[in-house]
Amino acid sequence: METAGESGVQPAIPDAPNLQPEEDYPSTCQSASPEDGGERITPIDQAEIFRALEVLERDSLAIAGSFTSLFASLRIALSEATNCSVDHMQCFSDAAGHLQESVLDAATKGNRYINSCLRLNQEMKGVDNLAMQLKILRRNVDALDSAVSRVVRLP
Questions:
Q1: For residues 48 and 28, is the Cβ–Cβ distance under 8 A?
Q2: Of 50, 60, 62, 42, residue with least CA distance to 8
Q3: Cβ atoms 28, 44 nearer than 8 A
Q4: b/e string for 80-95 if b means 16 or more Cβ within 10 A?
């Protein structure tokens, strides 16, 4: 199979100058003479047209293959990005769930600690009265001890 360079016909490139030399090909059609009252028919080389069409067809197939490959690559990249996003969202959801559990656990423990402190504070209010009673009791015991010591030393 010939490629575009081997056939002598270059593929059509938009906005590119025609680099092919202009050649006169022998006509395959009969031209009518102006005397016969007919119109002048330009020479057409069907083989060259078929070669140009072959090149055009090959280039079109190559472009279609490139587009197919490009779209397949884009589909794969989008699929990977989507899968990555879904994985990240699941990871974020799991992390948020664990964080929520930890916060609830910490709040529960904090409330227990605060309630224990309040209970201890209430109990400590009664300790002040008990401490006062102990001071009074100690003075009385000290007074009794002094009295017993005086009595025992007397003889």
A1: no
A2: 50
A3: yes
A4: eeeeeeeeeeeeeeee
Cβ contact 44:29 at 8 Å: yes
Query: Cα(20)–Cα(24) distance, rounded to whole angstroms?
Result: 12
Domains of the chain by residue range = 4-12+22-149
Structure tokens at 155: 């003889």
Q: Is the pTM of this model over 0.85?
A: no
Which residue blocks in the chain are alpha helix, DSSP H?
Answer: 4-7, 46-153
Model confidence over 53-108: pLDDT tens digits? 999 999 999 999 999 999 999 999 998 888 888 889 999 999 999 999 999 999 99
